[in-house]
Specification:
The structure is a homodimer. By secondary structure, chain A is an alpha/beta fold. Chain A folds into three domains: about 5-80 and about 110-185 and about 290-365, 3-Layer(bba) Sandwich (FAD/NAD(P)-binding domain); about 190-285; about 375-450, no CATH class. The first copy, chain A, is built from 16 helices and 19 strands. The first copy, chain A, has helices spanning about 15-30, 40-45, 60-65, 70-75, 110-120, 170-180, 255-265, 265-270, 275-280, 305-310, 320-335, 340-370, 375-390, 400-405, 410-425, 440-450, and strands at about 10-15, 30-35, 55, 80, 85, 95, 105-110, 125-130, 135-140, 145-150, 155-160, 165, 185-200, 215-220, 225-230, 235-240, 285-295, 295, 300-305. In chain A, strand 9 (about 135-140) and strand 10 form a beta hairpin. The interface between A and B is medium-sized, with 15 and 15 residues. Strand 13 (about 185-200) of chain A pairs antiparallel with strand 13 (about 185-200) of chain B.
Chain lengths: ~450, ~450
């Protein structure tokens, strides 16, 4: 703990994943932290699911929770998924490892992780939580912020020399800053929505599908995925266009839902006894990408996590990116000796390119997951990439860079562009289907490497 | 007037250029129109300038004011500008016609035009104005909207089965819709700001520069422009980066402003006796582009003008685009017999591509104006384009399409892409500087035409 900053005050807006993790970091540095959260305290009120996509914790997330001192606790409930299991329409399975032996992403429940972070944050005497408090007004001229206590319907204005806005994709703090001059802002929705569904455990508590994989049913313009939970169940998510030939708007009754699943996901459906209840009980949610700049206001308000860079979930990096914000901010705090007038603009400026890059990579991965994973050319490319990585250890597949390293996202995006160029040449080689380990591939690689 | 719609009510938010013109159209169709405007009534309070860029009225604008019955009135104060007059650093002048003989854009004062439109709208007994009324809340669930009377500080909620939001780039109505699910939205600021300056008339009331041109001092990354006014003055606008080597932030005192103008705009400066007062008296304003979709809410609220598609001013199309919204809406009203449940979604859907296209064209024209107009290759391209147009009347320069025709903007943008491709080939021809009227050009053109 840096003693000189003890008794300095920080306000954190939002006690979701990023807000509560960042609170732990601030608490460890000795700040008096006030955390305001619109929802009720899930430590007493419980966690309400129904519209969550399970989290896939990878290197950047682990690094952050380790720094926060809770890695071991999370590890106990995290389920390793060393690869994707792809389900064809006829039920054939293809397993595709995500990385090398020993590398895996980890299925973690959003509620469980959030709860753990709140519990840890709550152990610090210098942290105070205010649940059921909605951010009502951000004073941009003075260091003050106003919340509405939703239980008493009263307004409360507090001093806030330092505000961290971790209030998510629909950040109230960001909406306030949005109206200031020269603030660039984009919110973009996919034409696809998603719905949470469920594969419950077997009667004996075991998993109905192989739990050591992220299951995907890629169907071109739509897909189903399933991530294992510790209780033997899988959380499934259906991604489907809102409108069109095959879409949510066409699924209007049990008969159409039944026919849709029977046609496209029959092997999954066999494990979904509560399909109808889940389908009608859970909402159809939209998928937003948010980009903005600058991420800060006058060196005293900083947007972090989804408030700064909400992305689509297809790279499994939303939470990981938000947690990495905390790691990077923490390192800057040490480097700049707690001088927020330098930390905040430097973080906002330096990290922005990474937020934009992971947003782009996540959108590209949607195409890959729903579409290309079932494409023989794509599978061939994956095989060649793994092979090149074996032969040339400095050739890192982009998925590996994003998932199993801490390489800045903007470097990974640049590499993705470069590798797309490389594989376009490789896949054009004659007889590449059979010669994919041949000298021709290596020659193209060496040339590409030199050009790089 | 379509009698069956008499006594139907419409609310117009904003009495700027587009709001007041659209009010005239609605009034002519017999609607009871309530117009709410945040500012005071400029018919009594006057018009406050200082941050306006003069308007360049062209075909789309004329078509709309003609339909509204005020073409003649506007023509009396509009000054034709048949071309651009470019001023080099050393004071050399180059005149470049905008179109063919007889074609011109027209310099019009924003305040004067707005006043005229309000006067016309005010002659209809079925129009009621409410000035000093700020839009405070838009009820998205019910056909109601709430305004704050800024003179009494009281709130007033009115029935609004049909709302036209013409409340500009920072539309309050749009901010309300922005938070609804699946609303795509982008606000983007240029790194350049602008400042209004002035060239007053000669003592005898005459213009100090040739009034039959839009004057440009293109200087690469920045520029000065001047548009003539009927009173003998010119309204000038300086476009300059906010930050950087040569920027507003570097102009901190009279000495630096003086040195800057002396270096880059010495011939203009000779005509700017009030430069210092204007520079410090007028604000430095930013330049925003807004794109969003859908432009409507539940077939009863429609965004028009800048509220739907704010663009940068470099094509002189902001007002023209907003006025064209009115013309198109009016035509749809006739075609769909006043059925707003069909007019609104159809307009929003069909017109969106044009809003996006003119936004893109306006940004491209910024590059052209500040930079390329001083580039010999660009001047050559313009010459060849004019020559091709002479020789092949169906070859329309994009500027002509946008400015002197009513071709949909999205068609003009597609043509701009295609012509950029054409001229890339033409300008690569050997000895093109001398052979620009030669057979080689025609051959490339014919080939390009066939491919098209």
């Amino acid at each position: 703990m840096n003693k000189s900053f003890a008794h300095k005050k920080a306000v954190v807006v939002g006690a979701g994943l990023v807000g509560s993790l960042w609170t732990v970091f601030l608490a460890r540095h000795g700040y008096d932290v006030e955390v305001y959260e619109r929802r009720s305290d899930m430590r007493t009120a419980g966690y309400s699911g129904g519209r969550s996509i399970n989290l896939a914790m990878s290197e950047r997330g682990w690094k952050a929770v380790e720094k926060a001192g809770i890695r071991e606790k999370i590890e106990k409930v995290a389920i390793p998924m060393p690869g994707r299991m792809m389900h064809s329409v006829s039920g054939d399975l293809t397993f595709q490892p995500y990385g090398k032996a020993g590398e895996a992403i980890y299925s973690v429940s959003r509620g469980g992780l959030n709860l753990e972070l709140l519990n840890i944050a709550g152990t610090y005497p210098n942290v105070r939580f205010f649940f059921d408090h909605r951010c009502a007004d951000v004073d941009l001229e003075n260091p003050r912020i106003t919340f509405e206590d939703l239980k008493t319907n009263t307004l409360k204005t507090v001093e806030a020399p330092l505000i961290f806005a971790a209030d998510g994709a629909f950040s109230a703090v960001r909406y306030a800053i949005q109206k200031t001059d020269r603030f660039n802002y984009t919110q973009f929705y996919l034409d696809h929505g998603y719905k949470e569904l469920c594969i419950p455990p077997n009667p004996d508590g075991s998993h109905r599908l192989d739990p050591s994989a992220l299951h995907i049913w890629p169907r071109g313009n739509f897909m189903l995925i399933a991530l294992p939970n510790a209780d033997g169940s899988f959380t499934c998510t259906l991604f489907l266009p809102f409108e069109g030939e095959i879409s949510f708007e066409k699924l209007t009754d049990n008969a159409s839902v039944d026919a849709f699943f029977r046609t496209y996901f029959s092997d999954a459906m066999a494990h979904m006894p509560t399909l109808s209840d889940d389908f009608w009980g859970n909402p159809t949610s939209s998928l937003i990408t948010v980009k903005c700049a600058p991420w800060q206001w006058q060196n005293r308000i900083l947007l972090i996590g989804d408030a700064a860079h909400a992305i689509v979930p297809f790279y499994g990096q939303g939470m990981n990116a938000g947690f990495e914000d905390c790691t990077i901010l923490d390192a800057l705090h040490d480097e700049l000796e707690g001088d927020w007038s330098r930390i905040i603009p430097q973080f906002a400026q330096q990290r922005k390119a990474d937020g934009d890059a992971i947003a782009e990579l996540a959108q590209r991965n949607f195409i890959e997951m729903r579409d290309l994973v079932a494409d023989p050319k794509f599978l061939l490319r994956k095989k060649i990439a793994a092979h090149l990585h074996e032969r040339h250890p400095d050739f890192l597949p982009v998925y590996t860079m994003v998932t199993f390293s801490n390489t800045p996202y903007h470097v990974a995006l640049r590499e993705d562009d470069a590798q797309n160029h490389l594989f376009k040449q490789i896949l054009n080689l004659e007889n590449i289907e059979n010669e994919w380990m041949g000298e021709g591939v290596d020659e193209v690689y060496q040339r590409w490497k030199k050009e790089g």
